[in-house]
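User: Some background: our group keeps a shared notebook of sequences we're curious about, and every so often someone picks one and asks for a predicted structure to add to the entry. Today it's my turn. The entry only has the sequence so far, pasted here. Could you supply the structure so I can complete it?
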Amino acid sequence: MRNRTFIVIIATLSFLTTLFNCTREIERIKTETVVSELNYESTLFDSFIISPDGLHVAYLVKEDDGDHLIIDGEERAVYDLIGANTLQFSPDGDHIIYVAGRDGKQFVVYDGRELREYDGIMENTPVISADGSRIAYGAVKNKKWFVVVDEVEYGPYDVVEQHSLTFNPVNNELACVVKIDDKKYVITESFKSKPYDAILRGTPLYSPDGDRLVFGAERKTKRFIVVNGVEGNPYDNLVENTIKFDPQTGDLYYAAEFNDKQFIVHGSQPGPEYNGILDNTPVFSFQGDRYAYGARVANPGKIGDMQFMVIDDIEQKRYNALGSPPIFSPDGAHIAYVVRVGLRWFVVVDGEEHRHYHYIGVSPYPVYSSDSKKLAYIAKVGSDWFVVVNEEEGQKYESIAGGTLCMSPDGKHVAYAAKLNDKWHVVVDGDIGEPYDDIVTMKDHSLFFHDDGTLNYFAVKDSKLIRVDEVLK
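Assistant: Of course. Here's the predicted structure to add to the notebook entry:
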């Protein structure tokens, strides 16, 4: 089917004086290109993926003869089975990779080329290196597991641990966790660790400069950090999802537990003790000169601990709950996070509490503009959803799609997908776009601003998948 293109010019006046410090005319020059016709009965809508650059879209169609892969409106392959959760584009968006099945066997397909067949391919693989040059996955053959890197097999092993495959960001060497004779090992293509009773989930991981391989390990009920094969101090426990490198300085931080108390360890020095350290912290400013983490302490006489942020080693106000990891502004001058008091949620910025709401959206968390002058987040009161920008509430909607709130690279525009009168619209700077039956959304990226000031996304209208490109003036 040939693509069809329509051009629509929409000009509206949006009075957003508070947001933009002036009355601003928004001109949206929109081009719609039909990508494909959609059959609602056979299209697997949960399979849709968009390339990281926002320029390509792929999805699956299930027919009587098998699963059909559609890329940019063209059918590329048909197999007995294609793993919907294995579809992925390379980081540059130029390649596509997935797991397919035929005659009881499974194999990885890379740009249409079928790799070696196995009895099964491990879930959550393959993984792709940051530069897109290498792929790796776990595979099982004759009840033994192998790690396959660029079609080279390593093994056999008793088990290859899920979620453990990771590439070095500099030299692309693969590291992962395997099990041999009831012991766990971290292996790379040139290294094999000592045997351990367990390896902490979420590890191994590489330092930003690629010089250090770090993982959490367990031996005889004690847990410790291992850096390039050197074991650190033993603790009663290590807290998952807290092993972090400062992206600028390369310093290593993690949360450990001793005598039922948890604390952040920086280098070899433990910090203050708390009842707990929150997952996915600490976080760091882009400049590497600030950091923050979540902690909890007992709330005497009441059920549940109190939670709070520790910012640059200073404890902040305590709340009933923290709703998100903190986020630093790009210039490092500001920090924002979500908290709860009773049944109300709100955002705290530099210690200042914003208006209270029934809910604050967490997909995404609050978003800063590139110039650090705007902070936007999704909020809810009753059944109404809206976006708040610099404490100014936008129009109320029936819903706002997760993963769509974003800002342009120059920080001038705020965009998101919202539902109004049972139709979906892309809203830019408060201006409500054309109605669609649906907007294709991903967990972490759905609307795509580009450096030239354009915006693109994919929508569904009248049983058609449409690519929408907008020039904003």
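Suggested note for the entry: The radius of gyration is 24 Å. The mean pLDDT is 92.
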